[in-house]
Specification:
Layout (H helix, E strand, L loop, with lengths): L2 H21 L4 H28 L5 H22 L6 H33 L1 H22 L6
Length: about 150
Amino acid sequence: MTIFDQIKQDHDTVRSLLDKAEKADGGARPVYEELQRELWAHGKVEEAVFYEALARARSAKTETAQGLNEHHLINGLLDELNAMPADSTAWKAKLQVLSELVRHHLDEEEEEMFEEAEEALGDERAEELGRIYAERKEQALAALAPLPKG
């Protein structure tokens, strides 16, 4: 799988988790925690592998900088949500804001950044980055997994 396939697969997972979190009534915290782990792992690995490779490509510098800024905003909203009770109206409203920002970010990457990145990276590099991305993502999720109870 290429880096684009890997990222698109992650985006689909995030969209599904956002849907579940938005629909969860009263039990949103466990879904939110899974969403948070997925966003953290995806964001860090995407920055280290995909964005870093694109930072060297002149044509994608603006999109890369914008993506990094959006990751920063997403992480700020996650921090705010962590400090709030999940059963409050304010928490639900903030989750909606997070959802809108994340969905916008994912769409923008897929519709704008991928096209420029495909040209900048080429097929062979995209395959190589896909392998690296998958390996690092697996490691990141393992590191963020909750400890077993007992």
